[in-house]
Amino acid sequence: MTPPQLARRMSDIQPFHVMELLRRARELEAAGRDIIHMEVGEPDFPTPQPIIDAASRFIAGGDVHYTASLGQPRLREAISSFYRTQFNAEVPPERIIITAGASGALMLALAATTDPGDEWLLPDPGYPSNRHLVRAFEGVATSLPVDAATRYQPTPEQIDTAWGPRSRGLMVASPSNPTGTLLTGAELVALHRSTTAHGGLLLVDEIYQGLTYGVDSSTALAQAELAEANNVFVVNSFSKYFGMTGWRLGWMVAPQAYVREIEKLAQHFFISASTPAQHAALAAFEPATLEILEARRLEFGRRRDALVPALRELGFNIATEPQGAFYIYADVSALTSDSEQLARRLIEEAGVAATPGLDFGHHRPRQHLRIAYTTRSERLLEAVARMRTVL
């Protein structure tokens, strides 16, 4: 067979290990094994019923056509209102762009700002798709090693040291994947001032916004300095907090000067985000939906509170407890020298699927596992019991 004639950029794109792990889990399940899923970052709760009902009513009406490339105006206004009522942040709807998931927002932001050879600084460990999307647009993803000493978040001093002549911007996440740590408002301002001093951009990933424990949920846009800046992009999603992973809907808040250029890209990349999904998402901000989501947030918190001490008893070193998202990033170096090998043993011998640190960067990945508490508490504790038989 003739090998495919791939673009050079494909040599830098690596598989998403967690999806490979999920495929193996599905194979074992098909063979009759009971697998406890702690690998994929997908809530186990269904989409809230008010959202499903809104979609059903809209589809039944038959008016399922393209929407504007920037998004359905009512949804952009609803998101603007959500920022105002929940976070006291003034975000004009004209700056809100509805996208095909948060990944679609990242693609648009990078396509609009990144020339071949431009460099983006990214915390390591961090969400793997970010660095691969940078590479897909022929940029350079430069890792900033972070650890528990800074709660796995970058510092202005790191930015100043790492910034080079081709640096374009800094990408951060709060809450973060895989560590579940947050940036405070003051820390975001400090990072923004550092990137601004170098003439760069700041992109803040807030797709786990709303899923916080023991601290209030917030947004970078609650900081007036960031909300009014001409170099700050904020990406969000309906997937995690709102429980709409399969609907593939997200949004981006862009500086006004970029909106028209991003609109042109959206016209060619996607035409528009899913029309039924956009109309369904209008119900995400209704009081009945928000009540459901708050109950789920509290349940995630209870799961975290049960799982962290149980894992510590097994020898997992959790130096920084997660304040958000639904992940625990655990140092397993006391148990193994290779977390990928341990992950394979856990799924094959114990029927427990967890993600090795290799997915999240180059900084001590083989010493870490990411564990998602996205299944019922009793199943999480059963997983711990199964792990004990392997460790």
Q: Please, how many helices?
A: 13
Distance between the termini: 44 Å
> Going by CATH, what is the homologous superfamily of the largest domain?
Type I PLP-dependent aspartate aminotransferase-like (Major domain)
Briefly note the structural class of the backbone: alpha/beta
Mind sketching the topology for me?
Blueprint: H1 17-30, E1 36-37, H2 49-61, H3 73-87, E2 96-99, H4 101-113, E3 119-124, H5 128-136, E4 140-145, H6 156-162, E5 167-173, H7 185-197, E6 201-205, H8 224-227, E7 232-237, E8 250-253, H9 256-269, H10 275-281, H11 287-314, E9 327-331, H12 339-350, E10 352-353, E11 355-356, E12 368-372, H13 377-390
Parallel strand pairs: 1-10, 3-4, 3-5, 5-6, 6-7
Antiparallel strand pairs: 2-8, 7-8, 9-12, 11-12
Helix pairs in contact: 2-10, 4-5, 4-9, 6-7, 11-13, 12-13
